[in-house]
Amino acid sequence: MAAAQTETLHSRILAELTRKIVDGSWPPGHQLPKETELATQYGVSRMTMNKVLTQLAQEGYVVRRKRTGTVVAQPRAQSAVLAINNIQDEVAALSRRYHWRLLSAETRPRSAQDQRQLDLDAEEGTCDTLFLQGLHYSNDDPFCLESRAINLGVVPDAAGMDFDCDVPGSWLLQTMPWTNARHHVRAVNVAGRDATLLQLPVGAACLEILRKTQIEGEWVTYVRLLYPGEAHQLVAEFEGRPGG
């Protein structure tokens, strides 16, 4: 097939699939036919169809996962760049069902990996630290992978909490009047166990938020939040100033 003809077919198929998503013929969560079935339906090679689906994923129209195939993407969750949001509220804003699954919880000195992953400061103490990891879900899809360290010297009640039932971030927001916070936000390519837990292919784009909260100079918690890139976006509002 000539390159120009392939390009024309690619554009036509892309436009048709996009239209079905935009006009609601394929609503959020709709399962697309298999790549091979679509290729047969449109009379193109599997490579051409793969390029179409890849472009749809890059533009945020669909989500491609190893186990579930290709589905129409949900509307993206939004959070303010400087706000500390309750993830349960983010999921509820999408009219989806939320649940939390604790993966691990242990009290121990921090490791070099903890320090790298959570951006822990080298000069801060290493004892009496509770390390937690868990998954936030939107319906049955992984929405955010959370890794968290809590300073038990400042928040001793955390040692007795059942974080299988109580979501750590929500509990801290309700009980701990922190005085200042710091965010680091960046795009990363997911790998290893993180990719497996989020059900993403290795190398998929993700949004990483590293956050530290303090009370009068004492750190309360460090947290790393990892969101699938197609499911989340940050929003900031600014007011203009004369001459600005």
Automatic annotation (TrEMBL):
InterPro entries: Bact_HTH_transcr_reg (IPR050679), Chorismate_lyase_/UTRA_dom_sf (IPR028978), Tscrpt_reg_HTH_GntR (IPR000524), UTRA (IPR011663), WH-like_DNA-bd_sf (IPR036388), WH_DNA-bd_sf (IPR036390). Residues 7-75 form the HTH gntR-type domain. GO terms for molecular function: DNA binding; DNA-binding transcription factor activity. Transmembrane segments: none annotated. Gene3D superfamilies: Chorismate lyase-like (3.40.1410.10), Winged helix-like DNA-binding domain superfamily/Winged helix DNA-binding domain (1.10.10.10). Keywords: DNA-binding, Transcription, Transcription regulation. Coiled coil: none annotated. SMART domains: HTH_GNTR, UTRA. PANTHER family: MANNOSYL-D-GLYCERATE TRANSPORT/METABOLISM SYSTEM REPRESSOR MNGR-RELATED, TRANSCRIPTIONAL REGULATOR PHNF-RELATED. This is Putative HTH-type transcriptional regulator YurK. It comes from Pseudooceanicola marinus. The lineage of its organism: Bacteria, Pseudomonadati, Pseudomonadota, Alphaproteobacteria, Rhodobacterales.
